[in-house]
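step 4 of 6: structure.
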Amino acid sequence: MRALILMFFLFSLPSHAVIETYHFSNEQQRALYDELVRELRCVVCQNQNLIDSNAPLAQDLRQQIYQMVQHEQADKETVIKFMTQRYGDFVLYKPPLQPNTVLLWFAPLLMLLLGVVMVVRFVRQTQKVSHD
Amino acid sequence: MKRASWPLIIFIMISLLFALGLMLNPREVPSPLIGQQAPSLKGQKLDTSTPFHAEVLHHQAWLLNVWASWCTGCLVEHPLFKQLTQQPGLVLVGLNYKDEAKAAQDWLNLHGNPYDYVITDPQGRLGLDWGVYAVPETFLIDAQGIVRRKWVGALTQQQIEQEVIPAWQQLHIAGVK
């Protein structure tokens, strides 16, 4: 039984829609490619990264990244710059920290602070009530 | 009263934020090309297979329309381009994106050819440089070669009359001076 359950998990590993296989001359390049196709967004499908999407545009962009990584020995920065110059910051799943994204980056912290303030106030209030 | 109103205020604020968000169009990805020098447009002409370079368009404002014979939105906006060609001095360049030459030529023969030049981009290489992600797309480039506007999706009559033509006219007059 245990083996059966284990088998189930083995076969339910996340599968990717992507079929093309690219050959890299070294492992660093493969790792860089893998990192980039996960970090860049497919602009047409919007809530998928490049590796998860089979849209023609995502295929083109993967091909482009492969080309740059394998044949032009481009580093991560170069590829990201190439993509943002054409498609804007929107292609990045990790938006850069800049004036118009400050709220995006720090909103969670702001929410946390707000929560802490509310909890503290609530606790104090209930303490006061129980003391009275 | 005071304690009950806080969650209400927060609820209203969040609702307003969501309502605002719903009114935005998530399909519209702002182009980083606006205000930048236009990418080069070097390719082959569809009809003659001779080379084309956008340098021939220097010193005038022009429109670039990215289209394909397989694109349904292109067929929707296509008849409206008559209005553009009626404008004296307006140069409309078509970028035939990821299409087959024969299919593209047949499509133009069937529906009419409003373009002054049609450039082929069978692999989508030029489209990539222009940040094309959803055909049809239309760009407005000024006399200095700077991208001024971009419209994504099929243009409507209203957009052509109220946005495309006035924006082009303004740049055209500035370019002629």
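step 5 of 6: annotate
 - Chain B touches chain A at residues 26-27, 29-33, 98, 124, 128-131, 133-134 (CB under 8 Å).
 - The domain at 35-176 of chain B is CATH 3.40.30.10 (Glutaredoxin).
step 6 of 6: archive
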